[in-house]
Amino acid sequence: MMSTSDAPLRIGRIDYANVWPVFHEFRPERLECRSELVYGMPAELNRMLRTGEIDVSAVSSFAYGLNADDYWLLPDLSVSSFGRVQSLLLFVKSPMEKVRFGKIAMTTTSATTVNLLKIVMEKFYGGRPVYETAEPDLDAMLERADAALLIGDHAIRASWREHGYRVLDLGDLWRLWTGHGMTYAVWAVRRDSARRHPEAVGEIYRALLASKRRSAENPEPLVSEAVRRIGGTESYWRCYFAGLSHDFGAKQRAGLSLYFQYARELGLLAEPVSLTDWPDAVYA
Ligand SMILES: C=C(O[C@@H]1C=C(C(=O)O)C=C[C@H]1O)C(=O)O
Fold it and tell me: Which GO terms describe its molecular function (predicted)?
């Protein structure tokens, strides 16, 4: 399904707090072009961007890697970290000795982090666990598995509980083993949509950058909204947002390129991935 030229452009918004700094001040109704937001979990938006049900979206970087020939990156937007993220968490029930060759339950909502976990377990820890995907419910996952991977707000809420498990932060592990940062999500536009609507995509892109800039200057509105909508303390959310980077410069690109290289080495990706920016972004 592809949008026709008079249909509104559909913009995917990941329904997790990690993208708020880019979307918080973004108001599609104030734009000249017709556009609408579509909320979803990363895995749903990944699928919708692939089928053309949406035109531009924050998606898992792994999903970009799978479809790089059909997408362009909106430059300088990402969800990245240089170390600890606090929302990409492996909850470990059994000793790591057992987890390495045991069973790991992984949330259905992710594409980047499930493959990051495979890289960490197989390449760095020399393990070969069995993976299964499951709805993001920590107790149900750990009834049947030695460890469970949650991302986003599901991971944050679970980390606040008195759960008694050991917790590994995937951003931390990646940094520890590689020395690099990691990019979990990027903003991608379908090439066919961008060719049909370059001006609208430019307007949307400028508005996203402006929203990101405002949130970086003053994260306090995000912090209060997160406390109100999700819970936790102001200091938790200040630290959470400060630990994320929403830029996509040389350092983020280096970390993501290494991830794609390792994913290929493990057969998780069939082709090498090049990071190709939307060529008209220079005019936006
Ligand atoms: C930092 C995060 O990054 C995310 C992880 C994703 C993935 O694993 O596919 C996709 C988008 C982001 O939501 C997070 O979920 O907390």
Answer: hydro-lyase activity
Measured distance CA(161)–CA(257) in Å, rounded: 35
Is the distance from the beta carbon of residue 87 to the nearest atom of ligand 1 less than 6 Å? Answer: yes
Q: Which of 144, 178, 212 is the last residue of a domain?
A: 178
CA of 180 to the centre of ligand 1 (A): 17
* Residues whose CB falls within 8 Å of the CB of residue 32, separated by 6 or more in sequence, listed in order: 203
Residue count (the chain) = 284
pLDDT tens per residue, range 146-195: 999 999 999 999 999 999 999 999 999 999 999 999 999 999 999 999 99
The answer to whether residues 44 and 122 belong to one domain is: no
- For residue 43, the ligand 1 atom closest to its alpha carbon is 9
Report the distance separating Cα 179 and Cα 194, nearest Å: 35
Q: How much distance in Å is there from the Cα of 197 to the middle of ligand 1?
A: 28
Q: Is the ipTM of this complex over 0.85?
A: yes
In a domain, 1, yes or no: no
